[in-house]
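Work Package 3 (structural annotation) set out to generate three-dimensional models for the target panel prioritized at the project kickoff. During this period the team completed the workflow that converts sequence records into discrete structure tokens, so that structures can be stored uniformly alongside our sequence database. As a representative example, we reproduce one entry of 153 residues exactly as it appears in the project archive.
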Amino acid sequence: MKTHPASLSVKAALVLSSFTFFTAPLASADVIPQGGSGEFRGMYKIASSSDPIFPMGSGEEWFLDFGKGIQPGSSSSGSVAVSLRRNPNVKVRIMAWQYFPKQAQILIGNPYSEGSRNAVAKGAWTMSGAKNGVLFERGEFRVVLHRAEPADY
């Protein structure tokens, strides 16, 4: 009976553990958009927008609060507080969002329409990571979201 040296099993274990170590981040890559922080949750401020859904008027600021956001192994949908600030006034609207990891697409819309219990999409964007935040793209429109600092709101 031929046996393999003990060093072979140690080498195999090292190769397997290094493979697991280097591919573990890839397991969640389709769940959480990759960006500066590799996460998507909390409060974002729209830094720039060419999208008519989020027009950037003079003296206006948009904030989106995704709360717990996208969690690996759990929810890829929830509610988002969309705030439009025109000092000193603030309008807040609670909307629904859902993230589709295979398409890297996020839908935001009203949780229901009048006379129906079905959600109504306001817009669907391809979502990707950006330096300090996230980029939403819809056709020719782009929305750049940066993590909001406490001083922003």
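Helices lie at 6-27.
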